[in-house]
Write a structure and sequence with these properties.
Layout: H1 6-9, H2 15-25, H3 28-35, H4 37-46, E1 54-58, H5 61-66, E2 76-80, E3 90-98, E4 103-108, E5 113-115, H6 116-127, E6 140-144, H7 150-153, E7 162-168, E8 171-179, E9 195-200, E10 205-211, E11 215-217, E12 219-222, E13 227-230, H8 239-252, E14 258-266, E15 270-277, H9 284-288, H10 292-299, H11 307-318, H12 322-326, E16 333-335, E17 338-344, E18 358-361, E19 364-373, E20 381-383, H13 384-389, E21 398-405, E22 411-423, E23 426-435, E24 444-446, E25 454-456
Parallel strand pairs: 16-25, 19-24, 20-23
Antiparallel strand pairs: 1-6, 2-3, 2-6, 3-4, 4-5, 7-8, 7-14, 8-9, 9-10, 10-11, 12-13, 14-15, 17-19, 17-22, 18-19, 20-24, 21-22, 22-23
Helix pairs in contact: 8-11
């Protein structure tokens, strides 16, 4: 899709590696919960996560035969409890009743009609285990169909879009928007032909797009505007709430260290979790043009203590510098080995600054700091004293602690904090090491991670 790049390829999680993580990070009991949509719904619902309303559940043919299907209204979904990959799911759009003939049919998302007899026959196949992930007898769920959020109504006429969030070690590490198509039968499953758009974790804005198993697309059709629009730049509503719901799901099932959470947006109720997947698909990496393996390695040893910390870590570690990703390519700016940067002061904090005046960058309070550009360092670094004066080490501001070994052989834990800065007008959200730079002239070091899009002059300019 974007050419062979060995370095990038090594950052991608392969199927065999994914299966290894699935077995290593997910306990047998947690996998059983994830494989059961009913148990998942019950457990995450008790944890305060929004879930679609359960209309009925059938575990045997007798209950199925006793059910009065004619009393169902439109907008419901039939699904196997232990289904996988969208198999066996029927989405009903509305009810169609012929009162003269006393016949009740239902309309599917693609406009086709299905009879009650066909719904019963399909449910019998579910009970027989036709769509079960284990190939064993299954149960049938009938749930309410989500009322699509207005923003998504223009993106599809064939189903309900959802957001897949991959969570690892309690941190969201990747996300995508899945848009059903006629080809996918109204289901948000890329393997069946749905569209997938990568999402920047920091902003909730789409970046890149694929259709089906990996065909890159640049534009999608907007039914409201009646024209094609770019796949990048779509802002997902309730983004923080979506990330919170995903993390809550992992907290509710402690033995599930690696999972995909599928979230839909109801126009009245906001984020609703459809299901969790203990072995999520890997096409999400193509949507984001980024590897899961590399991102998972970054959060492997972080001790996450709260949902706020989890979201802060994902925003500062995996933010895509969205504005530069989606705008037309421009001539790179040239920076000097020593550059003045503006560092955002946390809201509500009164900085202990005597010589440096507090400035304004838009609506933000900032302070100007001289920084040294060092492409030999991957991550940027800030002096501990300066970090304290700016309020970056206050309670809740430290993202995590990174263990390292100094050149003298000493082992230390170095705080990593989230910093928002501006370099020649470009906003950068990043994670920065806190170190002792008291003996150095510059109190901030710019590593190569935060220098994307810049050219570095060999001399002062």
């Amino acid at each position: 899709m974007f050419g062979f790049n060995l370095k990038l390829y090594k950052q991608f999680l392969t199927k065999n590696e994914r299966n290894g993580v699935y077995l290593r990070k997910n306990s047998m009991e947690s996998r059983a919960i994830a494989d059961s949509k009913f148990r998942t719904k019950r457990i995450v619902g008790k944890a305060g996560v929004g879930v679609p309303k359960l209309i009925a559940r059938f575990r045997d043919s007798q209950k199925l035969g006793d059910f009065d299907w004619s009393k169902l209204e439109g907008n419901f979904v039939i699904k196997p409890v232990s289904g996988y990959g969208g198999e066996g799911i029927i989405i009903i759009r509305k009810k169609i009743t012929n009162y003269e003939l006393r016949i009740t049919n239902f309309q599917l998302m693609d406009g086709k009609r299905i009879t009650i007899e066909e719904l019963v026959a399909h449910s019998s196949e579910i009970l027989g285990g036709k769509f079960s992930i284990h190939g064993t007898p299954d149960a049938v769920l009938i749930e309410e169909r989500i009322k699509i959020h207005p923003m998504f109504l223009n993106l599809t006429k064939s189903g309900t879009p959802d957001i897949r969030v991959i969570v690892y070690n309690k941190v969201p590490v990747m996300a995508m928007l899945r848009i059903p198509t006629i080809l996918s039968g109204g289901k948000a499953n890329l393997q069946q032909g749905a569209i997938g758009l990568g999402i920047d974790l920091a902003t909730g804005i789409t970046t890149f797009g694929i259709e089906g198993k990996g065909t890159e697309i640049k534009r999608i059709y907007d039914f409201g505007k009646k024209k094609e629009i770019k796949v990048n730049g779509i802002k997902i509503p309730f983004w923080r709430e979506i990330l919170e719901s995903a993390v809550k799901c992992q907290n509710a099932i402690p033995g599930l260290g690696f999972l995909g959470v599928d979230v839909v947006l109801d126009k009245d109720k906001g984020p609703m979790v459809l299901e969790v997947n203990a072995r999520p698909g890997l096409s999400i990496q193509i949507c984001n043009k980024a590897g899961l393996k590399r991102r998972m390695e970054k959060v492997e040893d972080i001790n996450i203590k709260s949902i706020d910390q989890a979201i802060s870590v994902c925003r500062y570690l995996f933010g895509e510098n969205f504005s530069e990703k989606v705008e037309a390519k421009q001539k790179p700016k040239t920076i000097a080995p020593l550059e003045a940067i503006l560092i955002k002061i946390p809201k509500g904090f009164k900085p202990d600054l005597q010589k440096s005046p507090i400035l304004r960058q838009g609506k933000h309070r900032v302070v100007e700091v001289r920084a040294k550009v060092d492409t030999g360092a991957f991550r940027s670094s800030i002096d501990r004293v300066l970090a304290e004066k700016l309020g970056l080490l206050t309670t809740g501001r430290v993202l995590y602690y990174r263990h390292y070994k100094s050149s003298l052989g000493k082992h230390k834990d170095r705080p990593v904090v989230g910093v928002t800065l501006w370099l020649q007008g470009k906003k950068v959200m990043t994670a920065v090491n806190v170190a002792d730079r008291s003996k150095l002239r510059t109190k901030f070091l710019l590593g190569r991670k935060d220098l994307e899009g810049f050219l570095i002059s060999a001399k002062k300019v």
